[in-house]
Write a structure and sequence with these properties.
It is a single chain. By secondary structure, the protein is of the alpha/beta class. It has a single domain, classed as P-loop containing nucleotide triphosphate hydrolases (Rossmann fold, 3-Layer(aba) Sandwich), CATH 3.40.50. Helix content is 51%, strand content 15%. Helix 1 packs across helix 7 and helix 2 packs across helix 13. It is globular. The chain binds adenosine-5'-triphosphate (ATP) and magnesium ion.
Length: 287
């Protein structure tokens, strides 16, 4: 047992030392539902993977989980099977398109965030058994602002808020960001505008949104960019092939790749402490 803990601690130190080996944990959230969180989570994960990053997507929307369908994998088990000790971590993780790994959260993600220290230690040992380091963990969240979502956001390294140009979506995005800022003023927040009709309008609305955040909340949000409305996107979901795979040189693929590049630049530019990694470090007594 002691040896195992020592191995875990070493694994964790390896992860935490050097150039950012601890994974960045990014929650993709929105206030309003149906704005494109799952579409963006899946396509952005594939884009990051194509850029050489090792990516794990967690479907954290246990109401309407559908990332597995989008990624073309069949998820038999989820995180709660692992947490209950019924399955090894390797049994709940699946290989999806273009090397993106996938874990279905089920009710497990919330269990995880409510866990005691011993259980967290067990999870960490599961993660350290992965044969590869993960650079990014992308958590696709459900819609609405509730305690589960807030727990997940506050445990992440950063959050991507997705909105569309509709005033209701923007108001809900504002409400979500306000709630985050109230709980943690320094939590890094990125914003993506999805399904806009034209680029100029998207940029104008995004810049206006940033100004309002800054003026009303004293919060500097990062603008990751926009994805234009593309009628082939709903089609790609029906065909279970993400648009970045089916139309790799298309407009939407380019929009997503530009966002991925901006995310890499913004994330790298900041020294963001990884809360989950810090939590694990405390659990295992490494600091
Ligand atoms: N850029 C886009 N252009 C056109 N349609 C889009 C675009 N992005 C997403 N959609 C469509 O919008 C709908 C909602 O997308 P998605 O399921 O990704 O949203 P969501 O925010 O995850 O929803 P939920 O809140 O239910 O989880 C889908 O039918 C999807 O095909
Ligand atoms: Mg969704």
């Amino acid at each position: 047992m002691y040896e195992r803990r020592k191995d875990q601690a070493q694994g964790l130190r390896d992860r935490m030392s050097g150039s950012g080996r601890a994974p960045k944990v990014i929650t993709v959230a929105s206030g309003k539902g149906g704005v494109g969180k799952s579409t963006i989570s899946v396509n952005l994960s594939i884009a990051l993977s194509q850029m050489g990053k090792s990516v794990l997507v967690i479907d954290a929307d246990f109401g309407l989980a559908n990332v597995d369908i989008m990624l073309g994998v069949a998820a038999k088990y989820n995180l709660s099977h692992f947490l209950r000790g019924e399955k090894d971590f390797s049994e709940i993780i699946q290989m999806g398109l273009d090397g993106v790994r996938f874990v279905s959260g089920g009710s497990g993600l919330d269990e995880l965030l409510r866990m005691d220290e011993g259980q967290l230690g067990m999870l960490m040992s599961g993660l350290s058994k992965l044969d590869t380091d993960i650079d990014y963990i992308i958590c696709d969240a459900g819609a609405g602002i509730n305690d589960n979502l807030m727990r997940m956001i506050l445990a992440s390294t950063e959050t991507i808020v997705v909105t569309t140009p509709e005033p209701t979506a923007i108001l809900d995005a504002y409400a979500l960001i306000k709630t985050i800022v109230k709980r943690d003023k320094f939590h890094p927040i990125h914003v993506i505008m999805n399904r806009s009709e034209n680029r100029r309008e998207a940029d104008r609305v995004l810049r206006g949104f940033k100004d309002v955040m800054s003026r009303n909340l004293g919060k500097d949000v990062d603008l990751l960019g926009h994805v234009l409305y593309d009628r082939d996107v709903p089609q790609s979901i029906k065909q279970q092939t993400p648009i970045i795979i089916s139309q790799p040189d298309g407009r939407t693929a380019r929009d997503i790749k530009a966002i991925a590049q901006t995310l890499l630049n913004t994330s790298a530019a900041k020294d963001v402490p990884n809360r989950l990694a810090r939590l694990f470090a405390r659990v295992m007594g490494t600091r």
